[in-house]
Amino acid sequence: PLIMATKSAATAVDWTKIYTGLGLGKETLHELQAFRARHTSAMNRNVALKATTPEIDLEHYRSVLKDQNAVANAEKVLSGFKPVDYDVSKWNGVVDAFEGKAVAAAKETLTKISSEEASLKDTLSNIQDARPFEDLTVTEVSKARPEITKAVETMLKKGKWSVPGYREKFGEFSLM
């Protein structure tokens, strides 16, 4: 039941939607792709090992071989065989570390996207609530964009009385 649930869950994942639709960072996408590749590799190796497990018919060898001791020894070795148990706790730590990094990266991405969304909402609100350009005063513009005031002050200190590129763009409006 667990293996079937794992298989159905693995096939139900829409990887292209995850890669493109969630706005994940490059590092997170790379880690997900590496995880997917490791999972696929492990599944392929598991299938290959299951396919290569031989079934040994000792009765056939008893009927064919003259040396019955060899068959008895083979039967003894095969019946005494026990698969080695591996301690997978160290791998659990690796998986937990990967999961921790993936979750941290996802939270960071979520925070970044949330702040960008809030900024875009503020910008949209400013655009919708903005007064026409003709109704703005110099004081309001300098309050909204203090860097313009600093640039004008710097130009005045340097003795520059015209904006570079203004005449080329708007032409000459001299009254003299």
What do you see in this structure?
This protein is mainly α and 176 residues long. The protein has helices at 2-12, 15-21, 26-52, 58-64, 68-80, 89-129, 138-144, 146-157, 166-170. Helix 3 runs antiparallel to helix 6 (89-129) and helix 7 (138-144) crosses helix 8 (146-157). The longest helix is centred in the middle third of the chain and has 41 residues, at 89-129. The radius of gyration is 36 Å and the shape is rod-shaped. The mean pLDDT is 82.
Features:
176 residues; mainly alpha
In short:
This protein is an all-alpha fold. The chain has helices at 2-12, 15-21, 26-52, 58-64, 68-80, 89-129, 138-144, 146-157, 166-170. The model has no long low-confidence stretch (mean pLDDT 82).
Topology overview:
Elements: H1 2-12, H2 15-21, H3 26-52, H4 58-64, H5 68-80, H6 89-129, H7 138-144, H8 146-157, H9 166-170
